[in-house]
Amino acid sequence: MEWKLKIDIYKSTKDGNKYLSVPKGTKVESLQLSDPVDPDLLTLSPFKTRLEITPGKSHFALDQDNIIEQIEKNGYAVHGAKIEIKVGVVKTRDIWGQSKN
After folding, report:
1. CB count in 10 Å sphere of residue 67
2. pTM
3. 3-state DSSP of the chain
4. Model confidence over 63-99: pLDDT tens digits?
5. Which of 16, 13, 45, 40 is nearest to 28 (CA)?
6. Chain centre distance of CA 56
7. Lower Cβ count inside 10 Å, N or C end of the chain?
8. Left, alpha or beta for 14 (phi > 0: left; psi -120 to 50: alpha)?
9. How far is Cα 35 from Cα 26, in angstroms, rounded to an integer?
């Protein structure tokens, strides 16, 4: 049977690239964050609840193994979420066959 962990993810309201994840149902108000505390993580907004993560599996935008390791050690995980989208350009032609790009 595959081991899974359900987490709740909170996003910093000061820096949208910083996240704090905790085991599902954890009251973030009761967390004791390690000193020094990143001040951006002191004001959070719920981002995603009950996300299932699994050790050893890749996940879009998250390093699951690192998040699990931090939660096991600290009771929470501080991380980013990187999503990279590349958009290509298609050359188009006008009605006379001339390139527009």
Report:
1. 23
2. 0.77
3. CCCCEEEEEEEECCCCCCEEEEECCCCHHHCCCCCCCCHHHHCEEEEEEEEEECCCCCECCECHHHHHHHHHHHCCEEECCCCCCCCCCCCCECCCCCECC
4. 999 999 999 999 999 999 766 677 877 777 766 766 6
5. 45
6. 17
7. N
8. alpha
9. 20
CB 8 within 8 A of CB 46: yes
Do you know the residue count of the chain?
101
Show the domains of the chain with their CATH numbers: 5-79 (3.10.510)
Residue appearing with tokens 């981002």: 47
Whole-angstrom CA distances from 27 to 23, 34, 99 are 9, 16, 59
